[in-house]
Write a structure and sequence with these properties.
Layout lengths: L2 E6 L6 H11 L7 E7 L4 E7 L2 H7 L9 E7 L14 E2 L5 E9 L2 H7 L12 H12 L4 H11 L2 E9 L1
Antiparallel strand pairs: 1-4, 2-3, 2-4, 5-6, 6-7
The protein binds glutamic acid.
Length: 165
């Protein structure tokens, strides 16, 4: 069973270490891959990979991501095999939205078909959430309405967090 975490701080630097500590506390739930995304004020930076929290964070230098807001995830693969690309977070085409997701989206194939102009980088059901938000924001929806309408389009059982630049 996976874990998701989001953290906002009033000062720079400590986001990645807090995310890391939180993901470590939730390791007992079981997982196959790990990732974080941190907003540094000008862009969202994602680091992720297969393995345990310490291994992946050391290898991909999670500590280098500085910012005040971040999200993190440990994945238990449901749709899409265990791979670096399928590890969360997943991002929209423009890289301005990152999501972490727990659960399953039953209608993700239909939603991918609806979003066929978008470039998908993983085989997961989860990635469709980032692209749906991007699609709706590009149509003029504000953030709240984009979230509400994304929820209306998703079938399944899930929780997710979205980070927007
Ligand atoms: N369904 C998603 C995936 O396969 C999330 C799995 C989970 O809850 O860890 O990537």
């Amino acid at each position: 069973m996976c874990s998701i975490i989001a953290y906002a701080s009033c000062k720079d630097n400590d986001v990645s270490s807090v995310l890391l500590d939180a993901l470590s506390l939730m390791e007992y739930r079981g997982y196959d891959s790990v990732g974080i995304a941190v907003l540094n004020g000008s862009s969202i930076n994602v680091r992720k990979g297969i393995g345990n929290v310490r291994e992946v964070s050391n290898k991909h230098r999670f500590d280098e991501l500085v910012g005040r807001v971040g999200i993190g995830h440990t994945r238990w693969a449901a749709y899409g095999h265990v791979s670096n690309n399928n590890a969360h977070p997943h991002t929209s085409c423009n890289g301005k939205i990152a999501i972490v997701h727990n659960g399953i989206i039953d209608n993700y194939m239909e939603l991918r078909e609806m979003l066929k102009s978008h470039k998908f980088k993983s085989d997961t059901d989860s990635e469709v959430i980032a692209h749906l938000l991007e699609h709706l924001i590009s149509k003029g929806y504000n953030l709240k309405d984009a979230m509400v309408n994304t929820l209306k389009l998703l079938n399944g059982s899930y929780a997710f967090v979205a980070l927007l630049d």
